[in-house]
From TrEMBL:
Pfam families: Peptidase_S8. InterPro entries: Peptidase_S8/S53_dom (IPR000209), Peptidase_S8/S53_dom_sf (IPR036852), Peptidase_S8/S53_subtilisin (IPR051048), Peptidase_S8_subtilisin-rel (IPR015500). Keywords: Hydrolase, Protease, Serine protease. Belongs to the peptidase S8 family. This is Peptidase S8/S53 domain-containing protein. Residues 175-366 form the Peptidase S8/S53 domain. It comes from Orchesella dallaii.
Length: 443
């Protein structure tokens, strides 16, 4: 009797230990900050990441040859959807059984669970397919202070400062044949400098309200698209076509909507979300948003999928300067072009975020209109309207054509490691942009 009791006690203790280990492993997948928030404030929207993300498919697609970009994007989309379906299926079954609201994203192999409670997340974390559960990011935008009035007879100083107007005349291109996109607060489709070059075919998506025509309740997205593709003297590549996705609702950008826009860029639909057409993807995407802190990888899988599809992307590095190490994510991550700010006198703006980044990526300073113009000019030079400048080649071109003459740090500037005095690139100016020289350096 004593022997059986001892054995029973041992089995109970062993079961308790195994159960405790399981709980510990599950809890370790849930960010500590999220746990504290759930305990203090209750249910939260969360982002679930899965083991391996989408990297297996990305590597597989990148190792293959395809007869066209469209064929490659179709294969990429199909394989990403299959991976996500197979990876997320057990978690979806659990959530469907409990009638929990969620949104799955095949582009990044991630999932948003809405209004989740801690006990549910502990069960979700126990699935071996789950690698991390974090609070769903929300990004806040700073308002646009200066408004530009279009004037067909006056080219804005920012356009001439980077010699974009000289590229127009020297290479006979203003961005023709290139499709640019932004993920922002939307774009006012009736704007006099933007209405003419909106590509209406699979050209607009609003994951917030499902609106049928481009609109902007803030002005931020209209401003950024105007800088990229605006006519009447305000844009760098006015000959390009533009499309847009509303990833930001007024002054903030929801993580779920940013992921939805990222996925839409890989497989654009009509405004109602139907009629996918991967042949309508853009050449370059502008993202004038980001967090105030660096080192966050939550959007990297989306960026990797864009790269696999041949889409170049730019991200704002942030307005947290003048201190060093102030770059925000995703702008501080590898694989993107990060955008800083200088004024009309080539002084580094005091608010412009500086490197070095938490991920050790180089801070570069083109913007989406610049890349669109470089791509259009390159196609003209090659005599091939479908020619593409790969990310690595674009980086090489920017690196070897940095313009340094006349640049100054301005007021209130810290000198960062590998900073202005160390040459170019550096953690203050990055690779300063002079369009005419950069396009001449493309080989």
């Amino acid at each position: 009797m004593v022997r059986m009791t001892s054995r029973l006690v041992f089995q109970v203790c062993l079961g308790t230990i195994i159960f405790s280990i399981g709980i510990f492993e599950a809890s370790s997948k849930i960010d500590a900050g999220l746990v504290r928030t759930l305990i203090a404030l209750g249910n939260q929207d969360v982002l679930v990441n899965f083991v391996g993300g989408n990297s297996r498919v990305i590597n597989q697609i990148q190792s293959q040859s395809f007869r066209s970009r469209e064929v490659k994007v179709r294969a990429l989309t199909r394989e990403l959807q299959t991976l996500t379906r197979n990876t997320q299926s057990p978690v979806k079954d659990l959530l469907n059984h409990q009638d929990i609201q969620y949104q799955s994203f095949w582009s990044s192999n991630q999932m948003v669970i809405r209004n989740a409670h801690l006990s549910l997340l502990r069960v979700v974390a126990n699935f071996p397919q789950v690698s991390r559960i974090q609070k769903l990011p929300v990004v806040h935008l700073k308002p646009i202070k200066n408004k530009i009035v279009p004037n067909a007879d006056a080219i804005q100083w920012g356009v001439t400062k980077i010699q974009a107007d000289q590229v127009w005349s020297t290479f006979n291109t203003t961005g023709e044949g290139v499709v640019v996109a932004n993920i922002d607060t939307g774009v006012r489709g009736t704007h006099e400098a933007l209405a003419a070059n909106f590509r209406s075919d699979h050209g607009w998506f609003d994951p917030y309200n499902g609106t049928a025509f481009p609109n902007d309740q803030n002005g931020h997205g209209t401003h950024t698209m105007g800088t990229i593709a605006g006519t009447k003297g305000i844009g760098v590549a006015p000959g390009s076509k533009w499309i847009a996705c509303r990833g930001c609702d007024s002054s903030s950008c929801g993580g779920e909507q940013l992921l939805a826009c990222g996925q839409w860029m890989l497989n654009p639909t009509n405004p109602d979300g139907n009629g996918t057409d991967p042949s309508k993807i853009p050449d370059v995407i502008s993202n004038s948003w980001g967090s105030s802190v660096g080192g966050d990888t939550w959007y990297n899988a989306t960026i990797d999928a864009w790269k696999a599809a041949g889409i170049l992307s730019t991200f704002a590095l942030g307005n947290q300067g003048p201190s060093c190490r102030t770059g925000g994510s995703p702008g501080d991550q590898p694989g993107v072009f990060s955008v800083g700010s200088t004024d009309k006198n080539d002084r580094l703006s005091y608010f412009s975020s500086r490197g070095p980044s938490a991920s050790n990526s180089q801070l570069m300073k083109p913007e989406a209109g610049t890349i669109a113009l470089m791509l259009s000019a390159y196609r003209n030079q090659q005599g091939d309207p479908t020619a593409r400048l790969a990310f690595d080649k674009m980086v090489t071109t920017i690196e070897k054509s940095a313009v340094t003459q006349g640049l100054t740090l301005g007021f209130f500037s810290y000198r960062c490691a590998l900073g202005f005095n160390s040459g170019f690139p550096n953690n203050e100016f990055g690779f300063e942009t002079d369009m005419l020289i950069k396009i001449k350096c493309v080989d």
